[in-house]
Write a structure and sequence with these properties.
Order of helices and strands: H
Strand content: under 5%
Largest sheet: none
Number of domains: 2
Helix content: over 70%
Length: 149
């Protein structure tokens, strides 16, 4: 890997220093003087007496912002309450519809299964009765033959 090659360390460090030094010079010569001018102008405006204008503007902006925040808070709470109420109504109706449909299906399947089980139990009882009626006479015949012998 070229990053781990020891012969490449010098060139990597060299280009790193070149890039950082260039970036530092750009910030030092272009960006910092602009920021310092703005800060000096602010200090002059505050010291000259424009501070009262700034305070008045600040208070005006703050009062407008608080009014807008209060109105947006009221609107938001109304929207949330409306959404909650409508969603709870929708949920209740959908649950009722689903439960009615599901309960109807369950009731029908229950009745089918009970009727099938009842029919099967009747058939089993008939078969048992038929077999038992056929077997009892045979046993009684066998017992009678034994007794006679």
């Amino acid at each position: 890997m070229p990053q781990l090659d020891t012969y490449m360390y010098f060139s990597q460090v060299f280009w790193l220093l070149i890039i950082f030094i260039t970036f530092y010079i750009l910030i030092l010569n272009n960006i910092l003087p602009k920021i310092s001018r703005v800060l000096k102008l602010r200090r002059k405006h505050i010291n000259i007496g424009h501070g009262s204008l700034m305070v008045n503007e600040y208070q005006g902006v703050r009062s407008k912002m608080s009014l807008r925040l209060e109105s947006s808070l009221k609107n938001t709470t109304n929207l949330i309450n409306n959404a909650r109420n409508s969603s709870s109504v929708w949920l209740d109706t959908s649950i009722q519809e689903a439960s009615q449909k599901r309960l109807l299906q369950l009731h029908e399947s229950y009745l089918k299964s009970v009727s099938e089980l009842k029919g099967q139990s009747i058939l089993i009882n008939k078969i048992i009765n038929q077999k038992s009626s056929h077997t009892i006479p045979k046993k009684s015949r066998v017992k009678k033959k034994k007794l006679l012998d």
